[in-house]
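Forgive a beginner's question, but would it be possible to get a protein, spelled out as residues, together with the matching structure tokens, please?
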Amino acid sequence: MTPTKVLISGASIAGPTLAYWLHRYGFAVTVVEKADALRAGGYPIDIRGTAIEVVRRMGILPRLRDAHIDARRYTFLNSDGRQVTSVPGTVAGDGIRSQDLEVRRGDLADALYASIRDDVEFLFGDAIDTLDQSPHDGPDVEVSFRSGRRRTFDLVIGADGMHSQTRRTVFGAEEQFHRYLGYCFALFTMPNTFGLSRELMMWNSPGRAAALYAVGGHDAVHAFLTLHRPQPPVDALRNPAAQRELVAAAFSGAGWEVPALVDAMGDATDLFFDLAGQIRMPRWSSGRVALVGDAAYAPSFLTGQGSSLALVGAYMLADALAAHPDHSSAFAAYARTVRPFVSANQALVDNGAATLFPTTVRALEQRNTMLRGLDTMPAATSRPAHSALTLPRSPALPYSGRARARPVR
């Protein structure tokens, strides 16, 4: 039988994970990525709870354990730069025992890509331009790419992030699904002139935070500038100059090393600016097109669960497509199983309520009091929302050959 042809848009986390499992089930997979290559390095991300089991089943857990950042110290400063407290990181290995991992985003992306690059087709430097589903939910999706090529697929999956073009094309404007959480942030790298190694330093004043994170003994550190704004500065999203002006104005007069961070942001070539928000959709599929990861249910960086939801969601979508005889029932099963897990994790944070970024003097004082009472940063051994979904079995072979057949009408 002819293998089911699936196009996945996005080669970051959800996309390659989905490609890996679909290939295991016998699907013919193509992944298209607008960037010319995988993005190296990147800011630290967490892998927690159920997601740890996904990467274990993929065989990449040992590699990710080797890449675990294992921060040794977290130092918190008040608005004039004086130390509030300095807390040791979890004792070496505790993060592993608790099944929490922290790695650079690029290290996870590299591990995922290496696990599947020889088995599926990757199209770098290209993107979906238009999608045309056959009338009456017919057997094909006609895809036009920005490069000019045209291809036909049985299914198309958008794994192209919070600002998904696939979602915009099929479901409409992002604004109807985006839930703003009251913060915007800038991430970039800068020279490590501070002598930091495997540690984080965070400065706070009400509604503002600046942090430096050294993930190792490197010449560069990750810089974070986060600010609370009741209304989203949407005009700055696609204007790098406006982003820099917005952040610089918000941190004007700040103490500690914040002026140096603002200056470095002006020179950064890897500035990433975005709003802290969530994607909440009533449905994740339409016809033969479905969404996974941030494109469908971004939880925001404030939860620390974006990468984990992408890993788990991709696994569950592949399992549903393999276990059901048609795409409609598969997409329905995927949503039915994953949505409670998504909801629990999105509920970890609310508007203006991020623990590390208090917006009032009182909230900041309460946070600092809590931090002073810590002997070590908690290893987070008990997190119900992060482990609220149990994965189905990991297959050695495709389900009864079903995945090898084209989806039926």
Summary: The first strand starts at residue 5 and ends at 9. Residues 327-346 form the longest helix (20 residues).
